[in-house]
Amino acid sequence: MKVMIDLCVIPLGVGTSVSTYVTACQRVLQDAGLSHQMHGYGTNIEGEWDEVFAAVKRCHEVVHEMGAVRISSSMRIGTRTDREQSIDDKINSVKTKLAE
Amino acid sequence: MKVMIDLCVIPLGVGTSVSTYVTACQRVLQDAGLSHQMHGYGTNIEGEWDEVFAAVKRCHEVVHEMGAVRISSSMRIGTRTDREQSIDDKINSVKTKLAE
Amino acid sequence: MKVMIDLCVIPLGVGTSVSTYVTACQRVLQDAGLSHQMHGYGTNIEGEWDEVFAAVKRCHEVVHEMGAVRISSSMRIGTRTDREQSIDDKINSVKTKLAE
Amino acid sequence: MKVMIDLCVIPLGVGTSVSTYVTACQRVLQDAGLSHQMHGYGTNIEGEWDEVFAAVKRCHEVVHEMGAVRISSSMRIGTRTDREQSIDDKINSVKTKLAE
């Protein structure tokens, strides 16, 4: 089962600057070889369910290892069985309609 | 790694009544033997990371099998390494302060 | 327009214990006279759109006044035009089906 | 109070293709003159709290007017009192660290 998620990882108790932790998560996604795209309030990730969620778990593990004792993430999870649709497909579908 | 999540599964393309699908997900959680508590806009679930996320995957699979071709879930994910804290612990901590 | 939301307010840079801030938000909701119900990972709130969102804004203001310089909340927002449905209606609809 | 949100509007009961509704929301944001950036699973929006949330309300109203009788949105809400930080600032902060 393919999945597209949008993930935002928030470490607690480490001050207000979280970019070091976000950067570590980006490296986890790169190392996992997953298609992903960061935006201003999270990251789109797509791939096979098990691979995507293994990377999400690895993000939590890595951020804990960096010293954050508490993490609260929020996530959207999209699956569909009718057809495959990539991140870019979704964006282009709206952009085409906006240009009409 | 223990995890507490809050999950809201939304099937698309099956009309506006989603309680049949929510009920099926509750059964998935019961069958998995996971501690969980439904509220008005989602369900708290706690347990070992792998067991909890296996149940989330099963929810998506079951809802697809029931005929929903598209699902969009939203989830909060909480982990902590400093101490164990159950759903009830969290609620009681606030209720105690509210009563002060 | 009536709305039902599920809100989870997360203060950053104030340590890992957030129950003092959650308690302050519960007081905001009580003072606003809004129907609300706390669970283990957020709070259900229902009412008129403008009143509910005024309370959400007040929560952010109060938590900042308490010393948190950064807040990241997550929220689900439900509206429907076909019929009114309370938090309890939604829960009972699933509980009835579970008992069948 | 400035705010940055990430919004994902999901209309229920209108089939599985939601791009027409997402497009309408993009127009609402354009008409409101709000800085915003669509991604594969939502849209970043930044501005003054009241203006941003007026636009969110307008999105729900417009999608209902288009025929969706039920909507379930998910949103992240970020506020900070220590300094101003734009969507681009946040992204660049991580990109700089990734390149180190």
UniProtKB/TrEMBL annotation, chains A, B, C, D:
GO CC, alphabetical: cytosol
Alphabetized InterPro entries for the sequence: MTH1187/YkoF-like, Thiamine_BP, UPF0045_domain
Highest taxon of the lineage: Bacteria
Residue ranges, annotated region (Disordered): 81-100
One Pfam family, short name: Thiamine_BP
Thiamine-binding protein domain residues: 6-95
Similarity annotation: Belongs to the UPF0045 family.
Descriptive protein name: MTH1187 family thiamine-binding protein
Organism encoding this protein: Amphritea opalescens
